[in-house]
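Support request from a user on the community tier.

User writes: "When I paste my structure tokens into the form, the page sometimes reloads and wipes my input. The last time it worked, I copied everything first. Here is what I submitted, just in case something in the input itself triggers the reload:"
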């Protein structure tokens, strides 16, 4: 992927009307929309292959799997 696609901007949103400490802010990551589209396409393509590669015992973090 192009390096510029992976750049993100972190925006701090105040949780209160008068924030005075760092924990009073909520960070939001803004990604490039092209990166999001490419990542989603790759994910959807990998979902068709992953069940054939990963055994059923290693199903944590996959759809329908449990930890």
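"...and here is what came back when it finally went through:"
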């Amino acid at each position: 992927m192009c390096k510029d696609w992976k750049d993100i901007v972190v925006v701090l949103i105040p949780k209160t009307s008068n924030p005075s400490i760092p924990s009073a802010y909520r960070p939001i990551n803004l990604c490039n929309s092209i990166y999001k589209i490419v990542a989603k396409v790759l994910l959807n393509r990998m979902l068709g292959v992953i069940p054939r590669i990963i055994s059923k015992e290693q199903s944590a973090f996959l759809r329908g799997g449990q930890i």
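Agent notes: The reload is a front-end session timeout and is unrelated to the input. Strands lie at 8-14, 25-31. The first helix runs from residue 33 to 53. Escalated to web team.
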